[in-house]
Design brief:
The structure is a single chain. It is rod-shaped, with a radius of gyration of 38 Å. It is an all-alpha fold. The chain is built from two helices and no strands. Helix 1 packs antiparallel against helix 2. The protein has a domain of 93 residues.
């Protein structure tokens, strides 16, 4: 028997399948590139959020340093006032001057206590505001990462299913590859 000749239809189907495979391959490469760009964008976003968190931490440290400086100045001022008060006590000779000095000292201590209470209140407010901002930032970042992770998992599942179907169309088993 003579070998069978290929018909025109069979010869046309082979390039069509090759073209179709090449088109699917190019589409897959584009999908991969898009996903890689998306991952890179998400990584940049995460880095940005980490930098923002670093800045927030640095701001908190700066505020703490400012508070400590103010507290040191206030302590020094209080010590100076107390020294002046002691010196005035020593200089006073009469009971009337001594009682006047006692009244002034009491007033200074009340002002000092009021200033300290005010500063402590401000510090407490600053700490709670900082904690609130930090928690909101972390919650937002966590939420965004969760959404991104779910999206990646969904896309991954979709891609795996798509490629599994493509392989099965070509008669290949995805587990064998």
């Amino acid at each position: 028997m003579a070998p069978k000749k290929k018909t025109k239809k069979t010869a046309e189907k082979i390039p069509e399948k090759e073209n179709e495979l090449e088109e699917k391959y190019r589409h897959s490469i584009l999908d991969i590139a898009i996903l890689q760009d998306h991952i890179a964008d998400l990584r940049r976003h995460v880095r940005g959020m980490e930098q923002k968190l670093q800045h927030e931490r640095q701001d908190h440290r700066d505020l703490s340093r400012q508070y400590k400086t103010m507290q040191t100045k206030l302590t020094n001022k209080v010590k100076k006032l107390e020294q002046e008060l002691s010196q005035l006590k020593e200089d006073l000779l009469s009971q009337e001057e001594l009682s006047k000095e006692k009244r002034e000292r009491k007033q200074v201590e009340q002002e000092k206590d009021a200033v300290i209470a005010n500063l402590q209140h401000k510090l407490d407010n600053m700490e709670s505001d900082y904690e609130k901002v930090l928690h909101e930032t972390l919650d937002s970042l966590s939420s965004q990462l969760s959404v991104a992770r779910q999206g990646w998992e969904d896309e991954s599942t979709t891609l795996h299913q798509k490629y599994k179907e493509l392989l099965s169309e070509f008669g290949l088993n995805a587990l064998d590859i």
